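Field log, afternoon session.

UNIT: design team B
ACTIVITY: writing a sequence onto a fixed backbone
BACKBONE:
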């Protein structure tokens, strides 16, 4: 017989259901977010989960951060004023062979669809895809969107050392563009800088996560991927890493050393491509959010919390408390833009 502790450690992450502990969620009233006198729906695009059964297939363990119940997650959401989360699973399967990874992805996507079907007013989800096999990933994306009702796909910032701008991935990007599916890109740790990121400060997260996003986006720009697929809807975690903070240098490399920027694949300034990308709001301070919005456009920023890792409990207030944003821009960041990207009723 499964004990309560085992349910919390396993089923909670896969959202076994808060009916097991009905009083846990009943004690918290959902915060309602109002802008310009109007109640608005808030949407968190950066929210992690895992499927324990899929981890077991890969002989991986559930990380401690996920050892809380669906009820606990809803309590966190309600306290912050988050109406809907778009769930994603960080890829830990890019090393797997084709047949095993196909089984993992099938299981994960079916479980994600079950979660969303059980609580459609609180959860939507990004499909998992086996991007190491781009043709298979395109099929999984299409199946997830058309058959399972998933809203796009979650991917890493690289694939076993391969850049997402590599032509081998063009088929996947073409399918995502064709479907109008939102792709949420989250960095993952790779061994490239392992020695230099040792020591105090958790630099493998503090530095490497935003750095991988910066590298991934830069390659997608400079190698012409975003030019080739202008209709692609791609959202980068952590405010796009370092790229928006020092974006002008991306243009000046082409001015100072024009031979390093091929006009054949890059017919406009690199920073122009930032305006066709999307970025989450996880940049921590009002000044950082103001700068991000000024650089890429407020219409390109959506709310992210990084739940359940606790980087912030104030994503809603972060947006509401940035004085340079207009009320319309705040409404867009809090949920309006995400609703359109995810194909939800506005």
């Amino acid at each position: 017989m499964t004990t309560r502790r085992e349910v919390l450690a396993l089923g909670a992450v896969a959202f076994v259901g808060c009916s097991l502990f009905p009083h846990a969620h009943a004690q918290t009233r959902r915060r309602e977010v109002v802008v310009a006198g109007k109640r608005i729906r808030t949407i968190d695009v950066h929210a992690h989960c895992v499927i324990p059964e899929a981890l077991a297939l890969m002989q991986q363990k559930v990380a401690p951060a996920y050892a809380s119940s669906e009820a606990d997650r809803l309590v966190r959401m309600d306290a912050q004023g988050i109406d809907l989360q778009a769930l994603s699973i960080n890829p830990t399967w890019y090393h797997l062979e084709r047949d095993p990874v196909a089984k993992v992805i099938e299981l994960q996507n079916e479980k994600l669809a079950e979660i969303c079907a059980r609580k459609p007013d609180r959860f939507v989800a990004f499909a998992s895809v086996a991007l190491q096999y781009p043709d298979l990933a395109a099929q999984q994306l299409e199946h997830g969107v058309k058959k399972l009702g998933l809203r796009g796909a979650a991917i890493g910032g690289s694939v076993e050392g391969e850049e997402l701008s590599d032509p081998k991935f063009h088929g996947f990007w073409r399918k995502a563009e064709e479907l109008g599916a939102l792709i949420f890109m989250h960095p993952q740790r790779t061994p490239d800088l392992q020695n230099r990121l040792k020591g105090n400060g958790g630099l493998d997260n503090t530095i490497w996560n935003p750095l991988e996003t910066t590298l991934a986006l830069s390659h997608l720009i400079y190698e012409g991927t975003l030019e080739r697929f202008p209709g692609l809807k791609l959202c980068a975690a952590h405010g796009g890493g370092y790229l928006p903070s020092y974006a002008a240098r991306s243009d000046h490399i082409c001015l100072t050393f024009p031979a390093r920027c091929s006009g054949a694949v890059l017919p406009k300034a690199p920073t122009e491509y930032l305006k066709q990308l999307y970025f989450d709001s996880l940049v921590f301070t009002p000044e950082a959010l103001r700068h991000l919005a000024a650089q890429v456009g407020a219409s390109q920023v959506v709310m992210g919390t990084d739940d359940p890792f606790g980087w912030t409990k104030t994503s809603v207030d972060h947006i509401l408390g940035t004085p340079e944003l207009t009320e319309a821009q705040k409404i867009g960041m809090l949920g309006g833009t995400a609703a359109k990207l995810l194909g939800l009723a506005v």
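LOG NOTE: Residues 38-341 form a domain with the TIM Barrel fold (CATH 3.20.20.140).
NEXT ACTIVITY: expression trials, pending approval
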